């Protein structure tokens, strides 16, 4: 019973941290069988602690509002800074994809204040709501299944929708960046959507705060070298700077904003 309680606590901790965890990811993280995790999730769902969602779990009603508030307040200053840098690099009259995440919500808020006549295609309900405040913006929400924990839209229909467009910029984030530059996330459906955005954009921007470097996740998104520019709140370490430099990827931190603007 003691080990079961400890396992439940770890499951809740992981789901709270990553907002969504699949059964397979939890089984791997806790070194137990998927069947054990399913039984644990069933019990936690009965107590309204977790909520079943597409082969995994998100936070249930007891903690969901706390989770949402925590996500928006976490690294808030850093996300605001990153958003300001990204918005400064987007010209008026551009078309762009904007993906899921609270950093992307901050980007939308920054764009609304700085840029005119944008065409935004997003699978993020909150981004669409913020951008729709501008009468000169065209805002398109993708089709697909709405993820209850964060208003993200994912699924095969979302990928098919994205593949109909070719835009100027794709603005994305990621949950984890490993030492070799590999990018990871936890929801394979979300990853598929972001990969489609990358494939259908002329320029790719990645916005990540410093906590994402050396963080782990389960599903491979791609590599940091596939982006044109990386925006973060702290200078990457020497190894990461080498990866970016060798790939010809510009990396921008707050002190570099003025220089970057003069280059565009």
TrEMBL record:
<protein>
    <submittedName>
        <fullName>DeoR family transcriptional regulator</fullName>
    </submittedName>
</protein>
<dbReference type="Pfam" id="PF00455">
    <property type="entry name" value="DeoRC"/>
</dbReference>
<keyword id="KW-0804">Transcription</keyword>
<keyword id="KW-0678">Repressor</keyword>
<dbReference type="Pfam" id="PF08220">
    <property type="entry name" value="HTH_DeoR"/>
</dbReference>
<dbReference type="InterPro" id="IPR050313">
    <property type="entry name" value="Carb_Metab_HTH_regulators"/>
</dbReference>
<keyword id="KW-0805">Transcription regulation</keyword>
<dbReference type="InterPro" id="IPR001034">
    <property type="entry name" value="DeoR_HTH"/>
</dbReference>
<dbReference type="InterPro" id="IPR018356">
    <property type="entry name" value="Tscrpt_reg_HTH_DeoR_CS"/>
</dbReference>
<keyword id="KW-0238">DNA-binding</keyword>
<dbReference type="InterPro" id="IPR036388">
    <property type="entry name" value="WH-like_DNA-bd_sf"/>
</dbReference>
<dbReference type="InterPro" id="IPR014036">
    <property type="entry name" value="DeoR-like_C"/>
</dbReference>
<dbReference type="InterPro" id="IPR036390">
    <property type="entry name" value="WH_DNA-bd_sf"/>
</dbReference>
<dbReference type="GO" id="GO:0003677">
    <property type="term" value="F:DNA binding"/>
</dbReference>
<dbReference type="InterPro" id="IPR037171">
    <property type="entry name" value="NagB/RpiA_transferase-like"/>
</dbReference>
<dbReference type="GO" id="GO:0003700">
    <property type="term" value="F:DNA-binding transcription factor activity"/>
</dbReference>
